[in-house]
Amino acid sequence: GDGCGHTLLTPHSGTLSSKNYPGTYPNHTACRWWLQAPPGTSLLLAFGDVDLEPSEHCAHSSLVLEDPQAGTAYGPYCRNTVPATPLLVTNSSAVTVLFNSTSHRSGRGLLLSYSTSQHPEGIGTGMSPDPPPLAVCFSIYCPAGCKNITGDIWGNPSQGYRDTSVLCKAAVHAGVIADELGGQVTLSREKGITLYESAFANGLHSKRWAGGWGPQLQDPPPPTPLDFGGSQNCGNTLAMAAFNASSWWHEVDALGQDRAWVAERAALGTAGHSWAAEPGSAGAWLELDLGTRKNVTGIITKGSSEQYDYYVTSYRVSSSRDGKNWKPYRGSGGQEDRVFEGNTDSHSEVSNAFIPPIVARYIR
Predict the structure, then answer these.
(1) Lower CB count within 10 Å: N or C terminus of the chain?
(2) Which residues are in the F5/8 type C domain (predicted)?
(3) Is the per-residue pLDDT at 134 higher than 80?
């Protein structure tokens, strides 16, 4: 049977887990992952969690790492024989990860991340929420694949993140790194706040958290929020020179009154109704003219709750420097047009980051 769970492997970093993690892994399963780093580099493996049912010589469930170049093996590991350190530094550019299970009753399974010797400092599996103690500013390397690691995020890019947030997952939410690539993340501790509003960004929904303590106790300082260096949170909103669209809806309501859902109404924060394409039109698009060539790091979308519950659930983005030749956005090394996750209601804002940014005058 297939014992493989969440898996995202790239040449420079990745994340893998057993099936059902962090729930109990299945009986009688096996999984084999081959990890291959670029020539001239070696692999670093971070054990986020190894919770396999204990047995003599780990006979019921086991994790074994094999280094074919050196002819050595690490393990077998299970709950009563865990890795000696959370980080395994190998001298090899290739490692095989073997996971096996027979009949068992308990165990979360395994969560493992890796990076190369080009990133020796502080690789995070995204599992631990704890920043280094007393550090005001610190840096970790987040491997690819952190987005689907279990754990909650508290906060948003503009307010900062509560220090119990899963750091690498929060970095994807903030738009600092792309989940499919990972990357270096720098964080700083700032003055605390008592309320974190939730936000939906880059396919992740953070949670709302409100602090509160009993009146018989003196209020302690609020939890320290964490701010990401270089967070692309649309702090500098780009001015629009003009809007254009494939079509617009000329509505005549029940009272016979005209209402034009024209492209100019697409600006975020416009009072009343927004832009809407002509009903039934295929391949509708909205075009933004920034006036001059700009560096565009992200987009925020919102629906129109004016009388109707309207919103866009997904969309593609293309850009142009001259308004004639258009280039679809594919993200970091993607071979297919990127489809962005849009809104699920008409009133919430949804953010998506462009990693790398788009340099263009026109956006569609």
Answers:
(1) N
(2) 223-364
(3) no
Give the pLDDT score at 265: 95
Q: What is the DSSP pairing of strand 258-261 with strand 286-301?
A: unpaired
Q: How far apart are CA 186 and CA 230, in angstroms?
A: 8
The first and second tokens of residue 274, run together, are: 């927004």
For residue 359, the SS3 value is strand
Residue 220: pLDDT above 50?
no
Element (DSSP H or E) covering residue 173 = helix 167-174
Q: Angle at Cα 1 formed by Cα 65 and Cα 80, nearest 5°?
A: 45
| CA angle, 69 then 75 then 78, to 5° | 150
Residue 287, phi-psi category: left (phi > 0), alpha (psi -120 to 50), beta (remainder): beta
> Over 50: is that where the pLDDT of 81 sits?
yes
Beta bridge partners of 314: 341
Tell me the average pLDDT across 240-263.
92
CB atoms within 10 A of CB 197: 15
Residue 96 is which amino acid? T
pLDDT of 121 > 50? The answer is yes
249-252 and 61-67 beta bridge pairing: unpaired
Domain 242-363, CATH homologous superfamily name and number: Galactose-binding domain-like (2.60.120.260)
Mean pLDDT of the chain: 88
Per-residue pLDDT averaged across 36-44, rounded? 93
Q: Which residue has the higher pLDDT, 67 or 233?
A: 67
CATH architecture of 136-228: Beta Complex (2.170)
147: helix, strand or coil: helix
For strand 94-101 and strand 183-189, is the pairing parallel, antiparallel, or unpaired?
unpaired
pTM of the model: 0.85
In this prediction, residue 124 has a pLDDT band, given cuts at 50, 70 and 90, of: low
Residues of the chain with CATH 2.60.120.260: 242-363
Q: Which residues pair with 13 in a beta bridge?
A: 115
Closest CA to 67 of 86, 41, 95: 95
Structure tokens at 246: 């494939």
Fold category of 4-10+17-116 in CATH: Jelly Rolls (2.60.120)
